[in-house]
Input
Amino acid sequence: MNGITMLGGAIIIFLVAYVTYGSWLAKKWGIDSKNPTPAHVKKGQEDFVPTKSPILLGHHFASIAGAGPIVGPIQAAVFGWIPVFLWIVIGGIFFGGVQDYSSIVVSVKHEGKSLGEIIEHYLGHKCKMLFSIFVWLVLLLVIAAFTDIVASTFTNGAVATASLLFIPLAILFGFFVYRRNAPLAVSSVAGIILLVVCIAIGINFPIHMSKNFWRGFVLLYIFVASVSPVWILLQPRDYLYSFLLYFIIIASAVGILFTNPTITLPAFTGFKNPFNGQTIFPYLFITVACGAISGFHSLVGSGSSSKQLDNEKDAKLVGYGSMLIECCLAIIALIAVGVLFKDGHMPKGNPFVVYASAIAGTFKTLGLSESSMKVAYTVISLSFSAFAITSLDTGARLARVVFQEIFVPKEKEKKESFLTNPYVSTLITVACGGVLCIAGYKNVWPIFGACNQLIAVPCFLAVGVWLAKSGKENRMVIIPMVFMIFATMTSLIMSLGKNISILKAGQGRLETHGIQCLMIVFIFVLAFMLLLEGVKVLLKAHKESLEK
Output
């Protein structure tokens, strides 16, 4: 297999899926461009800002495109390139794309409400509380891990300088576009030019500080970003960052096109991981994560992007389109690890190093000088930082909203507590994430994959109930929901058994494997209770639909 065939074939399949299956979903869900979106109805309220589709596409894509589409496929490649390729394609089209698209649509159809609020509407307050507590804990892990990752990338002085310069650039962009009505095309060109200038300044004037300093800085930054109006910083910054991410994808694709690298990774290595014995089910479907489906995306879609949608028809581009773009990045990451596989061994280094080395290698083949190679490597490293920080501050903002929703009183006449104040809830959320980062989030990080994928289940469930109660077909969400239930629950059970075995053998540490056991049991019980209540409502909705 060669790189051109794999990437070209995937792109063609994704384009066909977007035009056909994406349009079919829009028809089934009653998408109508004449319907006013919450962004217009609630314009002026927090985060409700009618946004042009290119800007919202950039914001949404930058927010969901964390480290997953690069890390996941590279780690899952131990099973061979065929199963990973098939899951990226099938998962992206029928699982991840459907989840991302539907999470925006169901929120838009319900006045821009978050997934938690929609769950409360259809499944009850108890289910909403179970979901919100679970999601908040998962987002704390995101804050802790990504704070550490971003701080690590900032130890590269060039990345730190460029990233700092991006902040005022984004604020200026938002000011001119939203307060001075500057033309989007002109503003975008100017923004891209200044983006390149920031990168050039970063390379020539790097700022070197300790990792702990950058941890503190990042935590302070996400606090400010989480409480600021979305149009001031997050949206314009994500939009400008998206051009950097698009550039990396396009440059990588061009490198593959002109060098046509040979994939030396075996097509299939077996149903068991030859290195650690993990089975292809469920680990393949958990590990690939953002490259095929990620529960985190549904939180972004329902909690942020739905509030900025200018027209219902834009949901297809923003939700379904963004996921398929991310799938293309996942395919490129698979090609990267496939090219560097040598003598029966996976390439050394973390996934970021693997990806950067492979793509930089294609540029070298094209005859780039050493100085140009250095610049290319820096830009790729900067893109990793961009992937991480956009997901980080979006995750922090979503965690703040979820925390507020937990403490909103059930009865509307009751007075809300100070914990629902955005500044207080943000401070508590960011502080908890920071403590977890310093205290050792890695002790529980191994179960993050299953937890992240598990978020997709209540999203599919809520959409499925809405469609059933509306008399619409819902098989497109029920089938992936059932599959993800089995995959995530199986993963949690197997992880629990593994940790117990390690503790019994006296080989593990209580603060690591013991905590993981407690977390798994807690999450499993939460998920089981939520599913039990949700399935009851779903079956009742189906029965009522049939009676009609």
In short: The mean pLDDT is 90.
